[in-house]
Structures are given as C-alpha cells and as structure tokens.
Amino acid sequence: MAKIYTQKQIEKYKRQKYLSTLNKCTKNLYKLFKNPSTTYEDYKKRFSKLKEELDNQEAVYLESEYSRRTKEYIENLYNLTIKNKEFTTNDFLEIKDTQITKLNGLQKLKNRAKYNKEKHKAKIFEE
C-alpha cells in the first residue's frame, strides 16, 4: 500500500533537499578552491554540474540569512566564473583565496545561527 504524504511533509522534504544541495555545493566549492592542483577546467566542470543539480531542485522560500546568502553567493560566483566568457585560468587562480574567505564567512554565519548561547543558559539555570 502506497503511503500518502501531506502537503506539509512534501514541502518539508523539498526544503531539506534544496538546503542539502546548497550545502553540498558550498562544501565542494571549498574543496575545489582549497586544493592547489585544481585547474579552471576541473572547477568549471564540477561547478557546472553542482549548479545544474541546484537548478533542478524545486525552488523553496529561504527563511534564514545563511541560506539566502549562500544562494546569492552561488549565483554570483556562477555568473562571474562560468557565464563570463572573458574569465580566464589566471583569473581563477587570483580569486581562489578570496572565495575561500567568503565561504568561511558563510560557514561562520551558519554556525552562529546554529548555536544559541542564551538557549543553553536557560537549561543550565533551571536545574
């Protein structure tokens, strides 16, 4: 017997899928930029595949600042590096460090949102 899912469950699944694809994209980009042997062609191939995967996901409303900024970052980077026909291998080598810094900033934003000190303080004082 086929299980019937509610609309809320379907939306939650789509949201989780989209967010995990966003995270996958940023993690892969970080690895690509961090690896000194990554060539522009490798990057182009991998990032195009990741972007296509993200575009194939049904768009969802992004509530958190981290999610919105991550999506904006991916869109801007894609336009700068892949869609821009004048972008060269030398340009890629020049932007690697800058992009690592930006990705670290996004990760800090995610971690800051994930850990709420006040929430944990309340639990300690209740005991």
**Overall spatial form:** globular
Report the sheet with the most strands, covering strand number, pairing sense and barrel closure.
Answer: none
Instruction: Provide a count of the helices.
Output: 5
Percent helix, as a range, is over 70%
Helix and strand element order: HHHHH
Could you tell me the radius of gyration in angstroms?
Answer: 18 Å
Report the strand count: 0
Strand content: under 5%
Describe this structure in words.
By secondary structure, this protein is mostly helical. It has a domain at 25-112. The chain is 79% helix and 0% strand. The chain has five helices and no strands. It has helices spanning 7-34, 40-56, 65-83, 89-114, 117-126. Helix 1 (7-34) packs across helix 4 (89-114). The radius of gyration is 18 Å and the shape is globular. It starts with 6 loop residues before the first helix and ends with a helix.
SSE order and pairing:
Blueprint (H helix, E strand, L loop, with lengths): L6 H28 L5 H17 L8 H19 L5 H26 L2 H10 L1
Helix pairs in contact: 1-2, 1-3, 1-4, 2-3, 3-4
Could you provide a short overview of the structure?
The protein has 127 residues and is mostly helical. 79% of the residues lie in helices and 0% in strands.
Keywords:
127 residues, mainly alpha, globular
